[in-house]
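>> Question from a student workshop board

For tomorrow's exercise we were told to take the sequence and the ligand below, predict the bound structure, and bring the output to class. My setup keeps failing. Could a helper post the expected result so I can at least see what it should look like? The ligand is adenosine-5'-diphosphate.
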Amino acid sequence: MSSSRISIRKEQRPPKLIDEEGRRVDGRRPDELRPVKIEVGVLKNADGSAYIELGRNKIIAAVYGPKELHPKHLALPDRAVLYCRYHMVPFSVTERKSPAPSRREIELSKVIREALEPALFLEYFPRTEIDLFIEVLQADGGTRTAGITAASVALADAGIPMRDLVAAIAVGKVEGQIVLDLCDIEDKYGEGDMPVAMMPSLGQITLLQADGVYTPEEVKKALELAKKGIMKIYEVQREALKKKYIELKKEVEEEYGKK
Ligand code: ADP
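>> Workshop helper replied:
Here is what the output should look like for this input. Compare the format with yours to find the bug.
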């Protein structure tokens, strides 16, 4: 997707990304998501946090704020500034990655911020800052979209007022077929990927990127497939948030019961 992508020579291509039975490299059907798990409030020290596993991806998102912005001259008079940092830790990929922010990470930080901003009532908090940190602990394709999914849950956990959650997934083209949720091998050896983020209840797209060449019919099919995946992820986000508040309610009741 980004310009920093590792180049792949033709002779390195694996023989088959989709077998005769229509199964992908990890056994999935073209319209199947990888297993997804979301946990809320995993960090005590942040105002909001979430952890996501999407297949082999492991990503943590943390939110601080709204808080006073430094230096003050960067403050906006009519809304909060959303600061976003997407980062891959050195052990997130098979060959140690430099911990210094790469061009790709700087670009993805901006892309992720722009995908989340439409969902936030930033105008409620003028002259403040909301900090969002996304740490990729293990990467396997689709980290920007999984990062967005976790970040929106972390923002909700921090109590930031939102129009809707933002759920995201990548679709793409592999051996001429439109497939949902590309893993790293499909991302690298396939014909293209298309990360999509949406506010699912409002039905509004907040991120749409694409590499590769698609016919208009393929774009339509890819967006329909992305929407299907996003609705499933949205359900997991909501369940994770509900679970945290049910547990919190139990804790408060137990505490109250003691007194
Ligand atoms: P996304 O993770 O959103 O799909 P890219 O398309 O840029 O973003 O990256 C695809 C995948 O390539 C990543 O999920 C990760 O598995 C792998 N990758 C990215 N950067 C590196 C790197 N520096 N070293 C090894 N693998 C990487």
